[in-house]
Amino acid sequence: MELLYHAGFCTPRFPSWIPDWITNTPRQTITTWPSKPYGFSACTQVESEIRLSSKDKSVLVAKGYIVDKVNKVGKTSFQTSDRLLYLQELSSFILSLTSYPTGESLNDLVWKIPIGDSIEPTSTTGVKVDFRAAYQAFTEYLQLGTQDTDWKMEILQARAMAKIKQFLFRPQELRQLLWPYLRTALDFAERFADARACITQNEYIGILPGTAMNGDFIAVLHGSSVPFLIRKSDKRPGHYIHLGECYIHGIMQGMPETRKLKQTMIRLH
């Protein structure tokens, strides 16, 4: 399972379920993200059933569920676009809905989803943060016409100078409030291979790896902490390509109606 958390299709040299640590720098997975209430546990209540195919050792066979389908993928790439545009697109996806499958308020989801419903900021200042208020400060700050701020550079400078506390207490009250929220949202996005926003067929909002396309599937495997993004293989009927782990708000602590889902053996190559 650990291989799947780190893997995602990037080169035809390897099966998609094998991490390519030769050309890619290992990154933290979202499985360790401090989300409410006790971290992610999409299907950890069930023991994993995962093995190599007896007929083809390049194929990994895992028992699980295909729980949803990607209906719309964001156009804004986290790695190649302005970070604020990524966050704004994610917010617009949420507010385009009339309701949410979990019954949560959309006004709460606009600040919860970008930070993976984190229980704490990723900064090490020890300052207690009201994420709702921090998000409100963030949106107000954007309305002041400061969208051209290079946040990535500000973050790098703050880290390099080891003066996070000084940055937090700049005279601008809004910056003081929004910084922990923005830092946490960007740190969460950096755990994906080029994060993009998405809406699923069942109208869940999530964050996917940048290779995502409309029509890809969301799978939850037995024993897995998080869902995975998979795509039907063009080369092998009945098989899938593993694209990476994903965040789908509302199923990270388990699907509410797993009894209605059909268990299946998912073959990854």
Structural topology:
Blueprint: H1 2-6, E1 50-52, E2 60-73, H2 83-95, H3 106-112, H4 131-143, H5 151-161, H6 164-168, H7 173-189, E3 196-200, E4 205-208, E5 217-221, E6 228-232, E7 240-245, E8 247-248, E9 264-268
Antiparallel strand pairs: 1-2, 2-3, 2-5, 2-9, 3-4, 4-8, 5-6, 6-7
Helix pairs in contact: 2-3, 4-7
Pfam family, one: Het-6_barrel
InterPro entries: HetReg/Transcr_Mod (IPR052895)
Protein name: Heterokaryon incompatibility domain-containing protein
Protein model, in words:
- The chain has 2 domains: 147 residues, no CATH class; 107 residues, no CATH class.
- It is of the alpha+beta class and 269 residues long.
- Helices cover 26% and strands 18% of the residues.
- About 4% of the residues have low confidence.
- Strands 1, 2, 3, 4, 5, 6, 7, 8 and 9 form a 9-stranded antiparallel sheet that branches.
- The longest helix has 17 residues.
- The two termini are 15 Å apart.
- Helix 2 runs antiparallel to helix 3.
Total number of distinct structural domains: 2
Mean pLDDT: 86
Major sheet description: 9 strands, antiparallel
Strand and helix order: HEEHHHHHHEEEEEEE
Give me the Rg, rounded: 19 Å
- Give the helix proportion (percent range): 25-40%
What's the N-to-C terminus distance?
15 Å
Number of strands: 9
**Count of alpha and pi helical runs:** 7
Shape: globular
Proportion of beta-strand residues: 15-25%
InterPro entries: HetReg/Transcr_Mod
Protein name: Heterokaryon incompatibility domain-containing protein
Organism: Trichoderma harzianum
